[in-house]
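anyone seen this seq b4? input:
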Amino acid sequence: MASRTPWIIALTLLIWALTATSISIYYYNQMLDASRKIIEMNRLIEDARNQMNNLTSKLMRIVEEAVRRGDLELMNSIEKLENETLKLHRIIGGVISVNILVDYGNGSRKWYNGTKIVMGESMIKALESIVKVKYSVYPFGVFIEAINDVYNDPNRLLYWMWWRWDSEKKMWILGEIACDRYIPINGEIFAWKYTNTAEWPPKPP
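predicted toks r here
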C-alpha cells in the first residue's frame, strides 16, 4: 500500500493541475472576451460622442441663424431641441477641449488652450474655469459684466463680447447668442474681447 501512495499523490496532483489549468484557460478566455467587449463599447461611445458633437455644432448654427432672422417661433422650437441635446450629452458623458483667447483690447491678450469642460456644458462654464467672471442673468441669457476685474464701461461704449473661429470660412464670427446658450464642441476656438461698440460691426480679435 505504501508503494502505491506516491502514485496516488502524483495522480491527485496531476488531476488538480489539469483542473486548475482548465479553469485558468476558461477565465482567461472570459477575460479576453470581456476586454474585447469593453474596447468595442468604448469605440461605440466615442462614435456617439463624435456624432453628438456634429449634431450640436449644426444645432448651434441653426440657433445663430434663427437669432439673425429674429424668428421667435423657430427659436422656441430650438430651445426644446437644446434641452434634449443636453440630456443626451449627460448620458453619453465625456470631456472636451476648447481654446479660448481673452483679449483686453489694449494689446494684452492671453490664450487658454486645451481648456477642459464636460460635454454639454455651456461656454460660460468654460470661461469661468479659466478667469474670474462677473455676470448678470436676463431672460435672453447671461450678460458678461467683467472679466478679471475689467468691467464694461458704458460711458466709453466698451463691452465684453465673444467670438468663435469659423474653420471653414477662416474668420472670426461674432457670437449671436448669449454665452450660456452656446454649447461648445471639441476643438472649437473662442475669443472674448473687450470691444469698442461705437464701431459696428466691431473689429474681430
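The mean pLDDT is 84. The chain has three helices and eight strands. kinda curious what u guys think
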